[in-house]
Amino acid sequence: MQSIESKIISLFTSGINAVKPDVLIERSVVYKNGTLSIKETEHTQAIFDLAAVDHIFVIGAGKASALMAQKIEEVLGDKITAGVVVTKYGFTAELQKIRLLEAAHPVPDANGVKASHAVLDMCKKADESDLIINLLSGGASALLPLPVDGITLDEKIEVTKELLKSGAGIGEINFVRRHLSKLKGGGLLEQICQAKVITLLVSDVVGDKLDIIGSGVTVPVQRDFKRCWEIVENYNLQTTFPKSVIAFLKEQIQKNKRETGQPICKIRSSNIIIGNNLKALNKIKVEAEKWGYKTAIVTSALEGEAKIVGRKIAEDAILFAETQAAKGVKYGFLYGGETTVTINGNGVGGRNQELALAAAMALNGSKGITILSGGTDGNDGPTDAAGAICNGETIRVAGAKGMNAADYLERNDSYNFFKRINSLLITVPTGTNVMDVQIVLIEV
Q: At a CB cut-off of 8 Å and minimum separation 6, what does 67 contact?
């Protein structure tokens, strides 16, 4: 008989498989008789006539870009003239016509700058009769880190580190980095507006906001340096950010600089979402129902401090089990989104492991409730785990080993907590990224 732990891991895996880049491209992109058809997540159809296109160049960035590029090569074959995509170290694939570069994520490195220049150089080869296909997914923000003049890569890296430590949301992090970048916020589009651009997106942000996914490199957006400064002040970053960055932001505010993408670029650019968190949750729901679980998707827009969210998910599960669950009936509740962690200690972990640890503390002693929290990219923070699994026995098992869960949570050391009790969720890098998934299974 399959254990509840193996079931919940299988459900998580089914959700990931539904948003694998090759699966998304195969289901969404069709080339036939000179026509490129693309199905969006909401089942609308975008059709492009390639008869008048002289050259097709492929660019891209993100954790899913390598597998997306591999499938695009299968779909378009010799129609592709050339290409270059950049992915996170280890998230690779075998490519024939498209050059694959690797760089660091979430903190950018020099290879990211080199890759940014390579993408720009590829775009400069295109003219009005050409088409650029841009493959964008989660991680693109860090993988295309070309800074504005006057700010070095090291200084931009320091900004990223401080934002990650502050507890700022991914939208806020990308908003600030976008304003310090030559490519983000429509900056890349400004370099290639003479060619037609189709951007295929695997969304890793709550609400699937085009200007936030990959920091909107092909989305003309209004720059708002006052909002950047509000984020700096909100997280008390005035003294921790490099002086050059603070000076740059203040200078731009004084100039009241508000730029928008050029209208011609907007007309010649299409941004199409082919995969997102909800697609993964829908697949998990289908599979859970096959196993007899009455399953509901609670939200695909989960946000907030991980330890607070984890406690709330567990408390809601306990309340449901005690007041609404029918005896002998199995239930499933699904969540998706991206929480944040405020780092107070020097431990090791990630937002999913921290969420699961807080949930385990709330579940302590309860019966029949199992919770999984995992990152769909297979990496939760700077660890080899995707997340963790907990239930009402987790704290008792840890206590028998002399472990105090509250101490581990205070130190942000959730990885070592779950590692010692063999409850980490371990996967290989998945090659995709549609934020995080939380699965709650209830059997009372």
A: 20, 21, 22, 93, 431, 432
Please report how many Cα atoms fall inside a 13 Å half-sphere around the Cα of residue 435, on the Cβ side.
30
Residues 331 and 289: beta-carbon distance below 8 Å: no
Question: Are the CB atoms for 304 and 340 separated by under 8 Å?
Answer: yes
Which residues 6+ apart lie within 8 Å of 136 measured at CB?
60, 61, 62, 65, 199, 200, 201, 202, 213, 214, 217, 218
CB 298 within 8 A of CB 437: no
Domain boundary assignment for the chain: 21-146+181-223+259-275, 278-443
Q: Does domain 21-146+181-223+259-275 have CATH number 3.40.50.10180?
A: yes
pLDDT digits (tens, 9 = 90+) for 241-281: 999 999 999 999 988 644 444 444 445 788 999 999 999 99
| Predicted structure pTM score | 0.86
Phi-psi region of 207 (alpha: psi -120 to 50; beta: other; left: phi over 0): left
